[in-house]
Amino acid sequence: MIDSLDLHLKPIGWVHCPAKKPPRHWTVSDLEGELRMDPRYLEGLRDIKPGQRIVVIFYFHKSPGFKDRFLIQSPPHMNKELGVFSTCSPRRPNPIGMSVLKVLGVEGNVIRVKGLDMLDGTPILDIKPYIRPRATSDPDD
Amino acid sequence: MIDSLDLHLKPIGWVHCPAKKPPRHWTVSDLEGELRMDPRYLEGLRDIKPGQRIVVIFYFHKSPGFKDRFLIQSPPHMNKELGVFSTCSPRRPNPIGMSVLKVLGVEGNVIRVKGLDMLDGTPILDIKPYIRPRATSDPDD
């Protein structure tokens, strides 16, 4: 194990979104906005189509540094405390966020999306296809 | 836009998995293994329960550096080329992976999981609760 491993990432785009206070989570958001991608990655966007869902991995750029007292948190919409890894809080050891957004349209390096829960200017780290888990007969699924 | 933004992340745990060649994707994997988390985050794991699904964000530590020729790729199980952001390839501008795993059990800082598609020693960046999108009447969903 390499405990001191220091990983470097760079934004591949930025969220553009007019809302001062976006909804707390993509599952309850109808907010529309844009993902303005670095034009150097234009070719890699070519199979993103209107109507589909995408997974957007981003950086919580306004998150304060992580402290041990954030290991247990009370999400704003819940009346209980949860371990940080069972929440979507921006205050987490690595300030990485993940949202599933609906694609409304793609024009060049700009992806119009719906379901935003990020702040204007949020750095985007990755976009992936949204894939559902396999259906199983497991009642817990 | 801050084009030179350089983001630093640290592993919060590592994948332990016996397979030399894990399945290509979590949706087709029954592989079991462990997420061995840094004990400093133990308290944050307390609400992760057997039977649930979790989202695991990780670092493709064996991925080669990204080159423009990786903007279009042919996934191994498909007979067509796709833009990188429509694939789950480890060769991407930021080598971040995301898998949805089933929790089999939690003992201290070790989470036993099923559905692994990562290599042994993969650095884990984050764990989040798995949340489905809202059901809608949209036929594209």
CATH topology of chain A: Elongation Factor Tu (Ef-tu), domain 3
Domain count of chain A, please report it.
Answer: 1
As an assembly, this protein is homodimer
Number of E-state strands of chain A:
9
Annotation keywords:
homodimer; 141 residues; mainly beta; Elongation Factor Tu (Ef-tu), domain 3; two-stranded antiparallel sheet; 9 strands; 0% helix
Topology readout:
Two copies of one chain form a homodimer.
Chain A: E1 7-9, E2 13-16, E3 32-37, E4 53-59, E5 72-73, E6 82-83, E7 96-107, E8 110-114, E9 123-129
Antiparallel strand pairs in A: 2-3, 2-9, 3-8, 4-7, 4-9, 5-6, 7-8
Describe the structure.
The structure is a homodimer of 141-residue chains. Chain A is mainly β and 141 residues long. Chain A has one domain: Elongation Factor Tu (Ef-tu), domain 3 (Beta Barrel), CATH 2.40.30. Chain A has strands spanning 7-9, 13-16, 32-37, 53-59, 72-73, 82-83, 96-107, 110-114, 123-129. Chain A has a six-stranded antiparallel barrel with strand order 2-3-8-7-4-9. The first copy, chain A, has a two-stranded antiparallel ribbon with strand order 5-6. In chain A, strand 7 and strand 8 form a beta hairpin. Chains A and B meet through strand 1, strand 4, strand 6, strand 7 and strand 9 of A and strand 1, strand 4, strand 6, strand 7 and strand 9 of B.
